Amino acid sequence: MTASQKIVLFLIRSVARLFFSWETRGRENIPPEGSFILVSNHVHLLDPILLISSSPRWVSFMAKEELFRPPILRNILRWAKAFPVSRQGTLKGKQETIRRAQDVLQQDFILGMFPEGKRSFDGNLSRGKAGPAAIAARINVPLLPTVITGIEKIHGTSWLWKRPHIVIIFGKPFKLPSIEGKLTRRQMNSLTDTMMTRIAILLPPGKRGFYSERSGHDDDN
Predict the structure, then answer these.
(1) Where residue 152 sits, what CATH number does that domain have?
(2) For the chain, which terminal residue's Cβ has fewer other Cβ atoms within 10 angstroms, N or C?
(3) What does the pLDDT look like over 97-155, one tens digit per residue?
């Protein structure tokens, strides 16, 4: 983490504590070194900032390429070590995403991804997309399941004097089976379900959404 990043994070944390009741759990689960992919539920635009601020290591996030068009925002994102991702879903776009992800992970950085692909405004977990799981299996790096709860209360202006309680939980890192060659649809679905279930079990039962039934069985084990 650079000196400028440390200064910015200090300022962000100081301001955030004025408006939020902010709690972080499981920081000991974050590996002190080495690369891995942090996968989290996605509820609010502030999610990346709060995740970076809660981690002892900097997290580089993927961001949709449209955000890189305004010059000022583009410079901020580049400073934050974010990189653009096309949402067109073309083969060339997917290959470029994997290449950029590999570049980040080969530098022993943390790559942050939101497997749902979009925000869930009610805080319930949506069905995940295969991208993060496929990259983790292909490159053979661990996944770190993470969740944010309480941030769905931040809307409008009334939350400014209510200080909503936000909880960020870092689960234990795990590895998916290493896959060589082209992934079949069945393999992608299996890897994605495994990844999303690890995220779901960190959420309150009422917020597990699409993965409520399966994560409930895993809690029993």
Answers:
(1) 3.40.1130
(2) C
(3) 778 888 888 877 899 999 998 888 888 999 999 889 988 888 889 999 999 998 888 87
